[in-house]
Amino acid sequence: MSARPPRSARTTAPRGVVVTLVAAVAVVLLALCTAPATGTTRTAPPWPAPTDLETRAEAAGLRNVWGEPLAEHVHTHLTVLDGATPVTVPGDVGHSAREHFAAELHTHDTSGILHVESPTRQTFTLGQFFDEWDVSLGAGHVGGLRGELTVWVDGHRYLGNPRSIELTDRRQVVLAVTTVGEVAHRPAPFDWPPQYR
């Protein structure tokens, strides 16, 4: 058994290597935290409303609450931009009158209004909606749109994980994907219809 070398003789990793290693670990952890639900699409738009409502709701941690009394009823508006071109948020994501299905989070039409209608008060997030819609959302992409993702929440730049944005009443969320180096331009605020004011 050999004796341990004196401290002065031991080698340590250069500071730059340690910093690089820590940064790599942070990137991996961020990727894991922003990972979408299994099966979400990474194709280019348009992205239709899924037809398997129950499966997609479950993937988002939601369930059918059709006909249950509501403890929470709020609306958030979502705008998705491919450069300057709007991407349609489809109607009936998580909703079907014919099937008597309404997840706590759903759409009714193509206005971009996300409806939170829940029998319990809890926090619902943008990531849940994208999982239910079956469209991936991460730090640099929306579905198959890749590049620089600029996010605004209520007119202010948002630098956190877009999946964690809470859906609150009359909140406005804009996701703009541009080519690298292109400046994203925030659209005018959404003009809420009178029934939501």
Automatic annotation (TrEMBL):
Domain of life: Bacteria
Protein name: DUF1850 domain-containing protein
Species, as recorded: Curtobacterium citri
